[in-house]
Amino acid sequence: MKNFIGTYECKIDDKGRLKVPSSLIKQMENFDDKAFVVKRSVFQPCLEVYPMNAWDKLMGKINKLNRFIKKNADFIRMFTAGVKTVELDNAGRLQISKDLTNFASLQKDIVITSAGELFEIWDKDAYEKVISTNETDFASLAEDVMGSFDEE
Question: Which residue ranges does the record assign to the SpoVT-AbrB domain (predicted)?
Fold first, then answer.
């Protein structure tokens, strides 16, 4: 499994074009996918960018849900709301649609941060607010999430 690595401060212009840092472009090339999928995050006011193979894997799980159960149909609709495919243009930019830009409140200064097999796009102020948790809170979260993790 391939993973993205790094956090980058970038700019987005008024037309929603995001100049991707060259080191991230090189990582994107390692995924053998020309197209990527951009979607709204479920839990945070940011965007998630998936390589197509990772997106297809995730949608394989979602497509197994019974759509005749209302909560499943509602979840699928909300999960895929605003989903777009994007490709890097010749200038190394991603075009982020207006609806997704508005969802994540992306202004001029943004942060791109790795999140395993995907990366997130944040408004810089929102990102700094989310990661500004104190050490005790993060230590407690780490213990809750990873404390019982078994290497097997």
Answer: 7-54, 83-126
Going by the DSSP 8-state scheme, the letter that residue 15 receives in this structure is T
pTM > 0.70: yes or no: yes
Chain position carrying tokens 């404390």: 147
Q: Which residues, including other chains, have CB under 8 Å from residue 152's CB and lie 6 or more apart?
A: none
Is residue 109 assigned to a domain?
A: yes
- Which structure tokens are listed for 121? 């796009």
Q: pLDDT tens digits, residue range 56-105?
A: 999 999 999 999 999 999 999 999 999 999 999 999 999 999 999 999 99
Between strands 47-51 and 118-123, the pairing is antiparallel
Give the number of domains in the chain. 1
Tokens 């497509």 sit on residue:
63
Q: CATH code at 77?
A: 3.40.1550.20
